[in-house]
Amino acid sequence: MLNGETAAVAYPELAVQTMARICVEAEDSLNYGDVFKRIMETAPMPMSLIESVASMAVQTAYCSKATLVVVLTRGGSTAKLVSKYRPSVPILSVVVPEITTDSFDWSCSDEAPARHSLIYRGLVPVLSAESTKASHTESTEEALELAIQRAKAKQICKPGDSVVALHHVGTASVFKILTVK
Q1: Cys-Cys with 167: which of 28, 69, 72, 91 at CB 3.0–4.6 Å?
Q2: pTM
């Protein structure tokens, strides 16, 4: 609809502004608690471990009145699962590049997972620089801190807000509630 209106009408900017207002009002009228319950009713049981953690991160964000969900991901699948459960807040999908090496070649994953996440509802992709920290824990904390700083710069969150963070520690998936400083 918007394509035809902006191409053929004398007021394309007004058409886009009107459509944006309609979208904002439609989003504001949703009861995300009910939407989450309906999605959970149709979710496959038993859930995979990562899907279970993603759904619980959304429920935690809803219950704790978080203003943002931050997902550290390599390929984007975890962030897409969080999007499936329709949180009422934005999802900052922080794509951390994966550096692989054999004895002769080094390679680093590209930005494709961030680009692909643009089609999913609520995902805001961010590319993260690979950390030079010695341990995985230090690099995870650094990536979370940089993600929250970026979200503050984009005015997605502000100091004092609660943020739900979802990431991997070894083979375990972890989510936690952080307070923005």
Answers
A1: 72
A2: 0.80
